[in-house]
Write a structure and sequence with these properties.
Blueprint (H helix, E strand, L loop, with lengths): L18 H10 L8 H16 L4 E5 L5 H9 L4 E6 L17 E5 L2 H11 L5 E5 L20 H6 L3 E6 L2 H13 L3 E7 L10 H8 L4 E8 L9
Parallel strand pairs: 1-2, 1-4, 2-3, 4-5
Antiparallel strand pairs: 5-7, 6-7
The structure holds S-adenosylmethionine.
The site of S-adenosylmethionine (SAM) has 20 residues, from strand 2, helix 4 and helix 7.
Length: 229
């Protein structure tokens, strides 16, 4: 039987005090870290299928095993679904060999993949981040995606953006970071009784342990002005 999952605990109460400053800093500066050769190689594997695809592109960023990506591919047969994760151990584990033709699983570091995709001009129809590592220690704040220098690039890929997390603070910070980028987003919560369907193994684990999960969906992109400096 699966062990109950522990709630996220943190000494941080409320949004991190450096949130606005950090988001503004990354908005002002283009991140220059060199791209890793293995990232370029991994990206090369999906350039052609994406270019050849005439329908929408959906990115499941940090897909873990790819269970959620598989379901997205089944639910959206007109779309090409890319499931990306850096863990070779997780990616594809437990998935059937006979997978839909519109599903592509890619082992890559998102930090580089997002930048390569933006530089190639990709425009996503939908972009999901299901249960990214929360990094709850205040000192690890900079590792949360919304506090990372890659965040503006992630947003530049466009599309309907949805984040899910079992840590409310992460959801609140994500929503605030989006607002600083001029995106209005709706935050709601799910529990085992309200979730229409479970999207991923981590969501299953959390909901079945009695935890609440949080969902942040961008509902508009053009009605607010981003922070300017
Ligand atoms: C908590 S798991 C969630 C997995 C899956 N989305 C789910 O809900 O079941 C977070 C995943 O993000 C992946 N990840 C973290 N940082 C990453 C990065 N820089 N590039 C690619 N994947 C990353 C990890 O390998 C891990 O599989």
């Amino acid at each position: 039987m699966q062990q109950p999952s522990r709630r996220v605990t943190s000494s941080q109460t409320g949004a991190h005090p450096a949130l606005a400053r950090t988001v503004a800093k990354h908005l002002r500066q283009t991140w220059q870290r060199p791209l890793a050769a293995h990232s370029r190689q991994a990206f090369a594997a999906c350039v052609e299928p994406v270019a050849a695809w005439s329908g929408p592109i959906i990115l499941d960023a940090g897909c873990g095993t790819g269970v959620s990506s598989l379901q997205l591919a089944i639910d959206n047969p007109e779309a090409l679904v890319l499931g990306v994760d850096k863990s070779a151990v997780r990616l594809g584990r437990g998935l059937p060999d006979d997978r839909p033709g519109n599903l592509l699983l890619l082992r890559a570091d998102l930090v580089d993949l997002w930048r390569l995709a933006a530089a190639t001009g990709w425009k996503l129809a939908k972009h999901y981040l299901f249960y990214p590592n929360p990094w709850p220690k205040p000192g690890h704040f900079g590792r949360r995606w919304h506090a990372h220098p890659v965040f503006p690039t992630l947003l530049a890929l466009g599309g309907e953006l949805e984040l899910r997390t079992n840590w409310e603070t992460y959801a609140l910070e994500w929503q605030q970071a989006l607002a600083l980028h001029g995106r209005r987003a709706e935050l709601d919560s799910l529990d085992a009784s309200t979730a229409a369907s479970i999207v991923s193994p981590f969501e299953r684990k959390y909901l079945l342990s009695g935890q609440r999960c949080f969902r942040v969906r961008v509902i508009a992109t053009a009605d607010l002005c981003p922070l300017r400096h």
